[in-house]
Amino acid sequence: MFYLLLAIISSVMISFIMRYIESRVQNQMGMFMMNYLVCAILACMFMQNVPWVALQTMTVKDSLLGIVTGFMYLYSFVAMKANMKHNGVMLTTIFMKLGVLLPTIMAVVIFHETLSGLQLIGFVLAIFAIILINFEKGELHSGGKKALLFVSLFLSGMCDAMSNVFEQMGTPINKDGFLFATFAAACLVAMLNMFKEKNKMTKKDALYGIVIGIPNYFSARFILLALGQMPAVLVYPTFSVSTIVVIAFVSLVVFKEKLSVKKLFAIGIIALALCLLNL
């Protein structure tokens, strides 16, 4: 449970750092590249053996899982940043955390973990709440912006799911090698995109990337460690509902984000749904 608590704290930090820098970054891909470079360096630092020895134990499967996860991590961040601009911190975070549906379904269907009747009710409530938020009266004209929320839901869910896939199918001793492959792949793709866009990275972009990279790495690391101690059907819903509650509170109090009664009701349903998923 301790690792899960640390993962929640790290996730909350990422959301609010992204909220703070959303209008300050000039070169998005440069910022992402520095973020994942820091994550890759931290992964090396936390390896049980010296990096070149530890990486020699990586299997092809471990490496491929890390590379695929790296692509998802990068574009999950891109979608997150776009969503915060158009849909606000709270809705962005809620939909990203609703990505918990994907790894939970995978844990039950593929890895045969147990899902109770109350958890099934939680799934139905979560889907209902998504529909309720998406079809707010008078906002149907912003369908493109709304679609971004579902992109974040899918990518965030798949990032979480890949951590459980590695926990179930990868080599346990290579957790840090898996994280290194994940972040190195994301860093490389971000760097290639940056060069393709031909935008100059400023010192501030690099600094923001470094600041985000620290909680980003530890969020991924602590989730992996939590999955090693607890079942996925418990880890993911707890992680999601706790992060949503903290961010919703801070967004309303600190950032003064305004939501309609219908959306506040939907958020309440989501909180209930995620609680049921946790039972």
Task: Please tell me about this protein's structure.
- This protein has helices at residues 2-21, 28-45, 51-54, 60-97, 101-109, 117-134, 143-169, 175-197, 203-227, 232-253, 261-277.
- The chain has eleven helices and no strands.
- α2 (28-45) crosses α9, α4 (60-97) crosses α7 (143-169) and α5 (101-109) runs parallel beside α7 (143-169).
- The model has no long low-confidence stretch (mean pLDDT 79).
- With 279 residues, it is mainly α.
Sum up the structure in keywords.
single chain, 279 residues, mainly alpha
Number of helices: 11
Overall 3D form: globular
User: Main β-sheet: number of strands, strand sense, barrel status?
Assistant: none
Q: How large, in whole angstroms, is the Cα Rg?
A: 18 Å
Integer average pLDDT: 79
Query: What structural category characterises the helix and strand content?
Result: mainly alpha
Which residues form runs of ≥5 with pLDDT under 50?
none
SSE order, one letter for each helix or strand: HHHHHHHHHHH
Number of domains: 1
What separation lies between the terminal Cα atoms? 15 Å
Number of strands: 0
How much of the sequence lies in strands comes to: under 5%
Fraction of residues in helices? over 70%
Give the SSE map.
Blueprint (H helix, E strand, L loop, with lengths): L1 H20 L6 H18 L5 H4 L5 H38 L3 H9 L7 H18 L8 H27 L5 H23 L5 H25 L4 H22 L7 H17 L2
Helix pairs in contact: 1-4, 1-9, 1-10, 2-8, 2-9, 4-7, 4-8, 4-10, 5-7, 5-10, 6-11, 7-9, 8-9, 10-11
